Amino acid sequence: MIIIIREAIRGMIHNKMMVFVTIAVISFSLIILGGFSIFTINGLRFINLAESKIKIEAFLADGLSTAEVDSLSKRIGNIEGVINISYISKDEAYKSFKDRLGKDKDMLEALSVNPLPASLEIDLDPAYKTLENLDKISLKVALFSGIEDVSYGKRWIAKVDKIIKVLLLADLIFGIILLVSSILLVTMTVRLNVESRRDHIDIMRLVGATDSFIRIPFIFEGLIASFISSVISASVIYGVLFLLTSRFKDMRGDMNVIAVSIFILGILIGIIGSKIAVDKYLKERV
């Protein structure tokens, strides 16, 4: 083990500039990846929060009695996926709309009658808050006598659905690009180090050293570089997330999980990149 560590340190000193560049690029890549992960986690969280407020609004015909509204509510409540129904009277609808208008509420006061209909606010199980299920349930609700119209913000939900898909796809593509580029950089650095010591490697082979014995010091070099990068990037991500969660209470992200994930990812990048470089060289020199 002492020999391995000594060889690894000597190799890193010999190629210190490339090692420095490797540490800097891997650290930067991991920090960007961690930051993008935080952004994605919180983006999806806010989208889920918005989706939780999605409800179907069924507008009632004028003149329905209390018994008819109760009967209608019970029948709608039997539809699969419906978990709660709230009755919104004409007066309540008028007051709510007036509050939303804010400074422009005087426009409503100019009307002699309340133009807004009473409605049933239908809440669904989270599993049913998809475009397909919302469409199906809305169509069923619209068939009941006494229902004038049904609305659930279809266009808005379709846009949110597209945003989620784009966000996840971008996260995946961006993550793959960063990982591949980091692994390639480690591979290139170790390869240059191996090439610079090819005479030493040939001598080791002549005296009977196995490929495994030759390979380990180089992999250890990549491991040291990636370890340093992991410590730097995990510390930065932890610190940034700590500051953000302290300042913005709605910001989410498990600091320990994200920091540890970034740390482990960095270590894996170093090991994989080093192994690829050394294995390729040894095969070429057979």
Our count of helices gives 10
Order of helices and strands, N to C? HHEHEHHEHEHHHH
Number of domains: 2
Distance between the termini: 26 Å
Strand order of the largest sheet: 2-3-1-4
Strand content: 5-15%
Rg, nearest Å: 31 Å
Q: What structural category arises from helix and sheet content?
A: alpha+beta
Mean pLDDT: 79
Report the biggest beta sheet as strand number plus sense, adding barrel if it closes.
Answer: 4 strands, antiparallel
- Uncertain runs are none
What gross morphology would you assign?
elongated
How many runs of DSSP E, i.e. beta strands? 4
Helix content: over 70%
List keywords for this structure.
286 residues; alpha+beta; Alpha-Beta Plaits; 2 domains; four-stranded antiparallel beta sheet; elongated
Explain what the structure shows.
The protein has 286 residues and is of the alpha+beta class. The protein has helices at residues 2-14, 16-52, 66-77, 90-101, 106-109, 131-142, 154-196, 198-206, 211-247, 255-284; strands at 55-60, 82-88, 119-124, 147-151. The protein contains ten helices and four strands, in the order ααβαβααβαβαααα. A four-stranded antiparallel sheet has the order 2-3-1-4. α1 packs across α9, α7 (154-196) runs antiparallel to α9 (211-247) and α7 (154-196) packs across α10. The two termini are 26 Å apart.
